[in-house]
Amino acid sequence: MSSYRITLKDRSTEDIDDADAYQQEGQMTTFFRTGSGRQVVDTWSVRMASFRTSEIIAIRRIEPVAAALAPIADLRSA
Question: Domain residues of the chain, as ranges?
């Protein structure tokens, strides 16, 4: 599952973990967890956080980091 980092007008940042999507809802931008690999926001989606759209200056999607590889020393001993 991915996350989002938003930057607000006051230059503070907020991380919204486990959110899959976001959309504007009136004056607010809302982040959702859609679950089960669905790519659309629907009635089963869970609202994670909302921010006033006029306060947001940037939204960045953060992809999950791949599993760490074994250190090279461990591979040589195998």
Answer: 3-64
